[in-house]
Write a structure and sequence with these properties.
about 170 residues, alpha+beta, OB fold (Dihydrolipoamide Acetyltransferase, E2P), 7-stranded mixed beta sheet, two-stranded antiparallel ribbon, 6 helices, 11 strands, SNase_OB-fold_sf, Staphylococal_nuclease_OB-fold
Length: about 170
């Protein structure tokens, strides 16, 4: 019991010492279906994973369509509809802000999942179930999850190794 209390206290102190980044807002530019740039910040939406830009999916007839490009284009359309407001919670391993973001009061990630252009990774199960039931977007046919697609299509290593990652 004492160990649990001590661990809980340590977690509370760590959270107090390392608070979430402050909210950010402004005009944004889409990178792909689940991330974008907001000023100088790179932002990744929490709770979703969208197809990669080069990824294709199958429709209900088995024909391939550019689901990754479609997801990015829809993200761009959403971002252009108004000022983006983000509540960052953390940073990922690439230095991007992990955030819940809205445009005009509408949750961007919820919209992407509800339209079948992203899968839920923890926050948007209801939207995903609705999109699945209605065979929207990626749920109309077959697709690899974005995680599996990335694993099967690794990015080529930079010519300069770690220097290339510093540059980006």
């Amino acid at each position: 019991m004492l160990a649990i209390i001590l661990l809980g206290g340590a977690a509370a102190v760590a959270a107090w010492l390392d608070p979430a980044p402050p909210p950010i807002a402004g005009n944004a530019r889409a990178s792909d279906g689940d991330s974008f740039r907001l000023g100088d910040e790179r932002v990744r939406l929490l709770g979703i994973d969208a197809p990669e830009y080069a990824q294709t999916c199958d429709d209900h007839n088995g024909w391939q369509w550019p689901c990754g490009r479609t997801a990015r284009d829809r993200m761009a359309q959403l971002l252009k509809s108004g000022k983006v407001d983000c509540r960052p919670e953390d940073h990922d391993q690439y230095g991007r802000l992990l955030a819940v973001c809205t445009v005009g009061g509408k949750d961007i990630a919820a919209t992407m999942v509800a339209e079948g252009l992203a899968i839920s990774s923890g926050r948007y199960w209801g939207e995903e179930q609705s999109a699945r039931s209605a065979s929207k977007g990626i749920w109309a046919g077959g697709f690899d999850t974005p995680r599996h697609w990335r694993d099967d299509h690794p990015r080529p290593s930079s010519l300069f190794g770690w220097l290339g990652s510093l540059w980006s």
